[in-house]
């Protein structure tokens, strides 16, 4: 069974940075595209970034462009989300998931196009 585990969340001051990790078992990131999402309680899950098996990246929201970077290390079977210049709007639970496509990132950041969600890691941005 595919299992994804997010880590690296926590409490951070506004303007600070965090690096989230998504570690996989049951799959290899050499073959699959992985996306990062976030969700505030009561709101829809929002696609942020995706990285394909061939390292092609896709941004789904303009608000994180230039501040968030997705990357991966195939040897460690881990995908990362580097988040800089964090604001209060980034307070949420962050998830990673595998795309329904074999190796490519969908053009849309809809959660309906992803499977095998992790449990999430909480990020709280304080002032």
Quick structural overview:
Strands 2, 4, 5, 6, 9, 10 and 11 form a 7-stranded mixed beta sheet that branches. Strands 1-3-8-7 form a 4-stranded antiparallel beta sheet, with no helix packed on it.
Question: Can you tell me about this structure?
Answer:
With 127 residues, this protein is mostly beta strands. Helices cover 0% and strands 47% of the residues. It has no helices and eleven strands. The protein has strands at 3-7, 10-13, 18-25, 34-39, 46-51, 57-59, 68-73, 78-83, 92-99, 114-115, 121-126. A hairpin with a 5-residue loop joins strand 5 (46-51) and strand 6.
- How many strand elements? 11
Strand content: over 45%
The assigned structural class equals: mainly beta
Question: What general form does the structure show?
Answer: globular
Can you give the mean pLDDT?
95
SSE order in H/E notation?
A: EEEEEEEEEEE
User: Helix count, per DSSP?
Assistant: 0
């Amino acid at each position: 069974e595919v299992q994804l585990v997010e880590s690296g969340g926590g409490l951070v001051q506004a303007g600070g940075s965090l690096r989230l990790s998504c570690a996989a078992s049951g799959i290899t990131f050499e073959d699959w595209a992985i996306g990062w999402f976030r969700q505030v309680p009561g709101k829809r899950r929002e696609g942020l970034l995706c990285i394909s098996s061939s390292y092609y990246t896709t941004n789904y929201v303009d608000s994180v462009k230039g501040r968030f970077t997705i990357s991966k290390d195939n040897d460690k079977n881990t995908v990362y989300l580097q988040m800089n210049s964090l604001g209060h709007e980034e307070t949420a639970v962050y998830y990673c998931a595998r795309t329904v496509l074999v190796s490519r990132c969908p053009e849309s950041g809809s959660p309906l196009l992803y499977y095998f969600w992790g449990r999430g890691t909480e990020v709280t941005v304080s002032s």
